[in-house]
Fold Retropepsin-like aspartic endopeptidase domain-containing protein.
Amino acid sequence: MHSTSKISALASVLAACLLQTSIAYAEPEVSGEMAGSVTTTEQLDEKVVVGWIEKGRILPEHTAVKIKVDSGALTSSMHAVNIESFKRKGKDWVRYDVPVKDADTDEMVNLEFERPIFRKILVRGAGGTDRRPVVKMSICMGSKVYEEQFSLRDRGDMTYPVLIGRRTIEHVGLIDVSQTFLLPLDCPVSAENAERSKQKSMREDSTLVDNSKADEAEEIEEEHEE
């Protein structure tokens, strides 16, 4: 009887140890918040894969330009000179020139734009600080059109006139850093006219202009070596 009691007690201890072990090594449950941030294989399959250099168009212009895809930068950037701020129907606008080399013909082309100022940023780097206007512009990559935020600055000392950063990459897809020019440029035929019509409407009707962030404090971003 005494021996039986010892066996029963030992069995209870072993059972408790096994229970603790199973709890300690059990797979943790993914909370609702964490589950929402997990990227599934299906979601990855739906993403467009781009090279670190792609060809695109700044709508409504027909000129093809080389675009650098760089996840090190936050806000996309576009080469711009002769930047001039002005008021239109009480709203802040900016006009600027974008001199670029046509990626198809190697000819220099000067593109002229006027856009509402969406917001402003203060860029900090080794050389000091630089205030830049940010505008929304439509670009075509592959067969899709994206309206994205671009800071304007003189990128004349850079190899590529247009750089897209993380804010834009999030909408475009994934980067294959070992490849270039993965997307054949096939912009929708209607894209140019649609962009011209949109810009014309904003010039005529100020209620269509979204520069609600133009008067807010400048957002600070760190300079990225491009």
User: Anything to note?
Assistant: Helices lie at 2-24, 32-37, 41-46, 166-172, 191-204. DSSP finds five helices and twelve strands in the chain. Confidence is low (pLDDT under 50) at residues 1-7, 13-37.
